[in-house]
Design brief:
alpha+beta, seven-stranded mixed β-sheet
Length: 154
């Protein structure tokens, strides 16, 4: 299913960002010269489909992919406006780095970027961990949205 987020009512993101800084993790917008490295990491860590969507995020201006890195190693990524405009995702954190707040900080980075572009709401497409999104940003299910835009996907 898909979920809807009120961008005008996002909770304070500062604690999520501070948590990463204390752990020595840098979160930032990905840069065009990093495309090959980020896309390869997404492909190896997650899937070919997510790698394709990440490539689309790199074609946006500005790039709509954010990464979390530590000592020049990618730990997580998040994109928006990849599968469709105003959609958050794909996103993922390395299995070894999960539970450290990286996913939440990346979520905030994308949603805040979408808010600054003038959107009032964002759609989280094809949600996996619905409870996470509800707790983190107050996302609510969009009834009848499964399989949504992914209907008939090859």
């Amino acid at each position: 299913m898909d979920m809807l987020v009120k961008l005008y009512a996002l909770p304070d993101s500062r604690p999520a960002y501070d948590r990463l800084l204390k752990a020595g993790i840098i979160m930032r917008r990905a840069l065009a010269p990093e495309k090959h490295k980020v896309v390869a990491w997404v492909r190896e860590t997650f899937s070919e489909a997510w790698a394709s969507e990440t490539e689309v995020a790199f074609s946006r201006q500005p790039v709509s992919c954010f990464i979390a890195i530590q000592q020049k190693k990618i730990l997580g990524f998040a994109c928006h406006d990849a599968a469709c405009r105003n959609f958050f995702g794909p996103t993922g954190v390395s299995p070894k780095a999960q539970q450290g707040g990286i996913g939440k900080a990346l979520l905030f980075a994308c949603l805040e970027d979408m808010k600054h572009q003038g959107f009032g709401y964002a759609i989280i497409g094809g949600v996996g961990p619905a409870d996470f999104y509800t707790k983190a940003v107050g996302a609510v299910a969009i009834e009848g949205s499964a399989p949504g835009i992914y209907r008939g996907l090859l």
